[in-house]
Amino acid sequence: MQETIIRKMLGFMKDYPPLYAESTSPFWDDDNISAYMLEAHLNPTRDAASRNFAFMDASAKWICAYCGVKEGKRLLDLGCGPGLYGERFARGGFKVTGMDFSRRSIQYAKEQTEKNNSGIEYIYKNYLELDYENLFDAVTLIYCDFGVLSPQNRSLLLKKIYRALKRGGILIMDAHTPVEAESFVELSRADYNEYGFWNAKPHVVISRSKFYNERVNILDQYIVATEDNCECYNIWNQLFTPERFANEFKSAGFEIEGIFADVAGRAYDEGSPTVCIAAKKPL
């Protein structure tokens, strides 16, 4: 068993993976990791799994205003996590559906909507399997989730969102820009932990970061070894110029309505580490 684990570790470390190689396990639904992720989501002042609460307040207010929310309008929040945006959208007047692939986050979100009587529908599902048609007035995918997907999955998702939106429906999404690369440092390090984010058992974490594709893709890789297992988590991040971001929307049939610095509607400038696009399904 230990020899097998060592061979797996050596195999992961021998070379960096090809662009968009998948992780060996879906970490967002891991029982231990998802507990730490939920704790990070619920930290009101930290930009971690979610952005800080003050930013979310401003962001939800701007999105509701931008979409012209009124009674009966429906919003689909993809990658909704524990429903922090969902509750804000519901208070802003939307009828909300949230979708996420973390059982723990969805369970928390369901408990909160019942407690708050906010009437939000939460669904545990991979949003790449989205199957609605002409149902929603607005769709959001927030905190730069789009950039972790491969080009094929980005195209697939945009087509599914297009199909899910009503005519004239709005899609709001953000991504990291090349400015993000200016503070990025390629690294390789190993740490031993008795327990922690990646595993509840004693484990070694080998953390590696690398630029790909002329610095427009970033890999954060975590090789996690315990006495009885070894997993490799590849977290990709595509960096977008506004033009490249907009072109992916246009390829799926969307019309670009606005380009902003973030999902709170701040004016875009070339020094922004993020870009937000508001796009419309044509009437």
Question: Would you kindly provide a written description of the structure presented here, covering whatever features stand out?
Answer:
- The protein contains seven helices and eleven strands.
- Helix 3 packs across helix 4.
- The protein has helices spanning 2-14, 31-41, 53-66, 84-91, 103-116, 151-164, 242-251; strands spanning 74-78, 95-100, 121-124, 136-141, 165-176, 187-193, 203-212, 217-225, 230-238, 255-260, 274-280.
- The model has no long low-confidence stretch (mean pLDDT 96).
- The longest helix is centred in the N-terminal third of the chain and has 14 residues, at 53-66.
- The strands form two sheets. It has a seven-stranded mixed sheet, sandwiched between helices. It has a four-stranded antiparallel sheet with strand order 6-7-8-9, covered by helices on one side.
- By secondary structure, the protein is α/β, with parallel strands linked by helices.
- The chain is 30% helix and 29% strand.
- The N and C termini lie far apart (60 Å).
